[in-house]
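so my prof wants the structure for this chain in the tokens format not the other one, which i didnt know existed until like an hour ago. anyway here's the sequence
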Amino acid sequence: MLATLAASPWTVWSIAAVATAGVILRPFAWPEFVWAASGAVLLVLLGLMPWTDALAGVARGTDVYLFLVGMMLLAELARQEGLFDWLAARAARLAKGSATRLFTLVFAVGTLVTAFLSNDATAVVLTPAVAAVARAARAERPLPYLLVCAFIANAASFVLPISNPANLVIYGSDMPPLLEWLPRYALPSLAAILTTYGMLWLTQREALRAPLETDIAVPVLSPGGRMAAIGILGTAVVLLTASGLGADLGLPTFLAGLVSAGLVLLRSECGPMTVLRGVAWGVLPLVAGLFVLVEALQRTGVTAALAGLLRELVQGSVTEAAWIAGGVLAVGTNLVNNLPAGLVAGRVVELAQVPEPVRAAVLIGIDLGPNLSVTGSLATILWLIALRREGLVVTAWQFLKLGALVTPPALVLAMAAVILLS
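here's what i got, hopefully its the right format
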């Protein structure tokens, strides 16, 4: 029986589809990681995948796990030491009672955080800070400011190679130097960022008409909070240095988080266990399960088949292949999440040996396409988890209705720019 199951790729695809649907829909309100991890375990138990291959799939995510742990430690330290509350009060005072000014300020900060710390950092670090801003300003409707965190995390994720871990997956060992990356992606990034801002403002303008509190007291920042801020800034420098040297980002981020935690805890009343309990550890089995599902899909031969199809498209027309590949991936990332989609797409691009316009369009589809739905990217899932910690809920349908308005124009303009420049 197991041999029959193992011989059918349809069984693997079905399990992967159900697991992904569970991550998207969260039946019974079970956490996302339960569905991803269960799908991975089921593949092994049914004999559809050797346990050694499953472990290899888990191991492929090591750099991502280290990166996430480092970022989550930094975010939790900043939250517990009051850094977010201090920044929130400062930002709320700068807004001077204007909701639109605060919205723009959050968007600008989100762009910088995404560019220099990655889109996952925007979801993990910036979201709780923005929630604190909305509370400090006594915003009647805080959601517009929090939506900025989700959308800019993907819209600004190809400003630099380090802005999205998916960029490293798509290019692999062929990552262009920074001085080549910037002219190639500067205009597409500008198009994506400005269009996303404009569409978000248009859709949220009614909520942004309500005035904000102007008499806001700024709390005193503790020594631990100052050290947490230094840790975040130091991590940004470490990431830029690692990117410039072509090194993996996970271990430097993890070490930066550990060093920051040690320095903060020396000056803090909080103990290590308090910090560790505040970290959303469920993200790690979620990512591990997704890596195993991708490994199983690759064993069915799907990547080789897709590479052949892409090669045929390129032979017909490079421009047409770029539009099709980028568009299909932009939609596909919302069906399977951009982490597994990026892993598959990276392998397909490598096998097909596509020209640069196609690879660039693939990258934009993987990076920007996820703004369509809540499950499009790992960053958006992390954003949802951060929202739940703040007692806020955004349904998949609510996000999809907004994403369907915001994403298409940004995607079309960014892809047009990158195809013309490549």
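also thought this was worth mentioning. The two ends are 51 Å apart (CA to CA).
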